[in-house]
Design goal:
The chain has a 3-stranded mixed beta sheet. The chain contains 24 helices and 3 strands. The chain has a domain of 123 residues: 2-Layer Sandwich (Potassium Channel Kv1.1, Chain A). The protein is mostly helical and 478 residues long. Helices cover 58% and strands 4% of the residues. The two termini are 67 Å apart.
Length: 478
Amino acid sequence: MTLIWLVNSEYTEKYPFFLQRILSSYSNRVSKLSTKLTGYTKLKFNDFPGGAESFELITRFCYNNGSIHITPSNIFLLHCGCTFMEIPIMITQTELYLEGIHYLTWSEFVIGLKQCQILFSTMNTHPCFQEFLKTLLGNLSLPSSYPSSNSSSFRFSSSDTTPKSSRSETLLDCWKFDDLIFLEIDLFEKVIESMILLHFEHPRICSFIFHYQKSKFFLCSSRDEKCKLSETTINLLSSLNGSSFSCRELLDAYGTSLSLSMRTPERLKLEAFLGSRLDEFRIDDLLVRGKKKLVFDVDLTLRLIKVFLLERRVFGFFPHRAKKVGFLVDLFMIEVAVDPFLKPSKFIALGMALPDFSRESHDRIYHAIDLYLQVHRGFNEDQCTKIWSILDFNKVSTITSGLHLVRNTNFLPFLKQNKFKTLLFHDFVFHKFHQYVKNTTKSEKPGAKGVLHARRFTPKRSRIIEPCNVKSLPRLCH
């Protein structure tokens, strides 16, 4: 007579009926079920940890009179299986083996962790798993012989504030990080959380996160998998100190979030990190593809500036950092000024977003306004006045642009309305202006009506970006 054993809804092989008597002599669970086998030839085990593989190890243990060779590749399958089957003698043997896990080699730890991944839903909160994970992570810091740097594709990148000792220790770990790429996202998240609880240095944790994300991303077969990977990465990074990772790595992560059209909460977490590091940006980093008809995303830049200014209240503020951001925003204003779909309110918001001390000169702002009004010629006098109002005339270089200010017909109504003649037309400007008028008068035909009817200044043709025909965009837009 045979007895069919059903493990996790999957039929195993048909074992002889006397297997039930052998298992009953070791397993309290089978012994209890045997009393109910009146006329039945099928024995079911639902939620068996490790499935048929673990069940086969248990039966082999019982056939060998309670003896089996325990190795790192089967320890967790045996331990979870015997706990499920209630086999006291086997539980004792596996617990004794687990007490010596401190003596395992790194390769044996990796083999054991692969078994933990199979059993993760069962072992997630198991005390022996917690102890095993703690010992494995401790092994990351132990000195050992490791391959040369050429054997690993991993390259650590950190901010300038990262101690050199931390960088060298992370380089020692890089080949071990490669060995852990097999981790599924749930177990990887558990490993990172354990590293945080064990007070690992945040730069080291960060390097592992980015290395895992870059290596795993290309192995994902669907967009949903990539989104889950990126969202988990962002959530883990939000648990770390913002100075632990470089701005370049954050920009790469943000570019990935844009390409995947990820949820807004995850992107906002990255923007919070990026805004605090805005002074480390290059102009290309801000040139992110805009929404609808806009060439570039102005709202994103305004949000980053807001986060950067928040650092002033929370973590202190350094004027030289603000000046770097001021220079960056000025360049951005020049780039977006030629966008015919950019509203005046957004352009003005860019010019007024930073405090006065962030700019020592407003020459670039003047240039941006000039370009903006050349492209947007339909504004009335009041609208032009509001746009010119973001300019601080005390910070405009009269040596380089004084005569240009006088010639600019877009600027003259605002100049007259706000009575800034005494401010702008000091001796140098008057000298240049009269010289300009004199030269213009000589070149005009006889009978011209007055000196003030000088030829209208014709600006050079500016480079206008067509919103639907952008030849090249920075890497964030890819």
